[in-house]
Amino acid sequence: MASYQDVKEEKYRRFQGMVKTWIGCLGSFTLSLLGGLILAWWELNYHPTNEQQWMVPVGLILFVTPLTVSLSLFISDFYLSSTHDYSPSEKPFHDPEKLDTTR
């Protein structure tokens, strides 16, 4: 049976993981929003005269990269969770002792 301190530490670890996830999502959303704003600014101010064209690739990179990374992380997590019957706390990431190679 787990002690009160163990339960408290586990809840704190889960909370830390949730905070890190939310910070990552917020940063990704902000970066994508910045890329979209750069593209919109270029469209409104510089597109008629075809000036400041460096803003287009920079805006596209900032806009698309967080979406691509988020999609790849979602797909890899989906396939990892569907191919193994590990619970989230038992996934063998970077822990060779927990990795079961006999399956």
Automatic annotation (TrEMBL):
<dbReference type="Pfam" id="PF16594">
    <property type="entry name" value="ATP-synt_Z"/>
</dbReference>
<dbReference type="InterPro" id="IPR032238">
    <property type="entry name" value="ATP-synth_Z"/>
</dbReference>
<keyword id="KW-0812">Transmembrane</keyword>
<feature type="compositionally biased region" description="Basic and acidic residues">
    <location>
        <begin position="87"/>
        <end position="103"/>
    </location>
</feature>
<feature type="region of interest" description="Disordered">
    <location>
        <begin position="82"/>
        <end position="103"/>
    </location>
</feature>
<protein>
    <recommendedName>
        <fullName>Transmembrane protein 230</fullName>
    </recommendedName>
</protein>
<keyword id="KW-0472">Membrane</keyword>
<keyword id="KW-1133">Transmembrane helix</keyword>
<feature type="transmembrane region" description="Helical">
    <location>
        <begin position="54"/>
        <end position="75"/>
    </location>
</feature>
<feature type="transmembrane region" description="Helical">
    <location>
        <begin position="21"/>
        <end position="42"/>
    </location>
</feature>
